[in-house]
From TrEMBL:
The record marks G176, T177 as: Cleavage. The keyword Hydrolase applies. Keywords: Autocatalytic cleavage, Hydrolase, Protease. It comes from the Bacteria. This is Isoaspartyl peptidase. Substrate binds at R205, I206, G207, D208, T228, G229, H230, G231. The active site is at T177 (nucleophile). GO terms for biological process: proteolysis.
Length: 311
């Protein structure tokens, strides 16, 4: 499949009830700045000739380190008042993947997922076993207070005595699952996703982000996809892999496949969210069925794009 651009990059920071009326001008500017900074990190890597895998990891690390987003440092509280984080990364060239779920105190879960991919014979590690693997790999850990912010604590306090869980980006104070996809100059694709899940989620709950084929997928023959939204629906619909399949077996373009899954299939079942994707030709798609999605893209030779709202 001939490429039309040397390299492409796209990222997201969550999808949900995100409107101009619920973001102050300062919050709007802060989110755009964080998204642009992460784009610049990935663009520099791709422009320098490094791999898509390196680019998506670095982009997600940048977003994990930003407390605005529900991943890494910005992760929300679960029902026990703890932070349990999930992440995955996948290489489109080899179909190699690494994923972790339910990890605590790991500074950058996406780096742990990358270590699982490159330093183990496994794909998916969880909880204490994943944390022990992180220690053996020398990855940095942080104390609980590193992951604490007043906004997320207030969210949890409002729900902690109930059986209700909350999509973190469905209320006025918004934080989002993060992810990135890339096509590098060698024609290889990669995807990575990281999240803290849902506020007041049951402890040990796992969403779609670390599930290969549901929230994260990459295949050089088709596309790379990173999802965000109500994870249970994305798992049931195997969203990321479904887009790849529609391209491979039905001949749909990336935009056609992504729109069909996000704007039709998910909507029929009540699944809210969106995704970012890039094809083997460098085409970028960023569809969502919610009121907004923190997102950005940068295609070689073009100006970078950062957007939030549904317009």
């Amino acid at each position: 499949m001939p490429r039309t651009v040397p390299f492409s990059l796209a990222l997201h920071g969550g999808a949900g009830t995100i409107t101009r009326s619920t973001l102050t001008p300062q919050m709007d500017a802060d989110y755009r700045s964080a998204l642009r900074q992460a784009l610049e990190v990935g663009h520099a890597i791709l422009q320098g000739g490094d791999t898509a895998l390196a680019a998506v990891e670095a982009v997600v690390v940048s977003l994990e380190d930003c407390p605005l987003f529900n991943a890494g440092r910005g992760s929300v509280f679960n029902k026990q008042g703890k932070h349990e984080m999930d992440a995955a990364i996948m290489c489109g060239k080899t179909l190699g993947a690494g994923a972790v779920a339910g990890v605590k105190n790991v500074r950058n879960p996406v780096q742990l997922a990358k270590a699982v991919l490159q330093q183990s014979d496994h794909v998916f590690l969880c909880m204490a076993g994943a944390e022990e693997f992180a220690r053996n790999q020398g990855l940095p850990f942080e104390p609980d207070d590193y992951f604490y912010t007043p906004h997320r604590y207030e969210q949890w306090q409002a729900l902690r005595d109930s059986d209700t869980y909350m999509l973190d980006h469905s209320v006025e104070k918004k934080f989002g699952t993060v992810g990135a996809v890339a096509l590098d100059q060698a024609g290889n694709l990669a995807a990575a996703t990281s999240t803290g899940g849902m506020t007041n989620k049951n402890f040990n709950r796992i969403g779609d982000s670390p599930v290969i084929g549901a929230g994260t997928y990459a295949n050089n023959h088709t596309c790379a996809v990173s999802c965000t939204g109500h994870g249970e629906f994305f798992i049931r619909n195997v969203v990321a892999y479904d887009i790849s399949c529609l391209m491979e077996y039905k001949g749909l373009s990336l935009t056609q496949a992504a729109d069909l899954v996000v704007k039709e299939k998910l909507v029929k079942l009540g699944g809210e969210g969106g995704l970012v994707a890039v094809s083997a030709t460098g085409e970028v798609a960023m569809p969502f069925n919610s009121e907004g999605m923190y997102r950005g893209s940068w295609v070689a030779g073009q100006e970078p794009l950062v957007a939030i709202y549904n317009d």
